[in-house]
Specification:
The chain has about 130 residues and is α+β, with helices and mostly antiparallel strands. It has 2 helices and 6 strands, in the order βββαβαββ. The chain is globular, with a radius of gyration of 14 Å.
Length: about 130
């Protein structure tokens, strides 16, 4: 079994003791991303849809650094501070993913790092 950390400057740096992603053979486990701008490390402005888009942009950057892309994601977990935002997540995801869609869970949580309203983590399988 090969195991390697994945890192890119195109996504926010880890704000704790974790890797942006960890590749184990062809499976890559992407740490949760919140809507941080990779350069400023601040939450992006522009409303909730823009924040979900930033989360997906961050996941895409880490997936690319691992050798894959959003289309290689097989499982997502969406963490929301308010499940009323679920439909907005679906709207943004419909622009970024195509069928067959990844498996997904959505969970309402009390709080997220930096006061974010959304966080998404993922599992992808590299082509090969």
């Amino acid at each position: 079994m090969s195991r390697r950390a994945v890192h890119t400057d195109a996504a926010p740096q880890a704000i704790g003791t974790y890797s942006q992603a960890l590749a184990v053979d062809r499976t890559v486990y992407l740490s949760g991303q919140i809507p941080l701008d990779p350069e400023s490390m601040e939450l992006v402005a522009g409303g909730f849809h823009r924040q979900v888009q930033q989360v997906l942009d961050n996941l895409h950057a880490v997936a690319s650094a691992a050798g894959g892309g959003l289309g290689d994601i097989v499982k997502l977990t969406v963490y929301l501070t308010d499940l009323k935002d679920f439909e907005a997540v679906n709207q943004v995801m419909a622009r970024e993913f195509s069928e067959p869609y990844p498996a997904r869970a959505a969970v309402e949580v009390a709080a997220l790092p930096r006061g974010a309203r959304v966080e998404i983590d993922a599992v992808l399988v590299l082509p090969g």
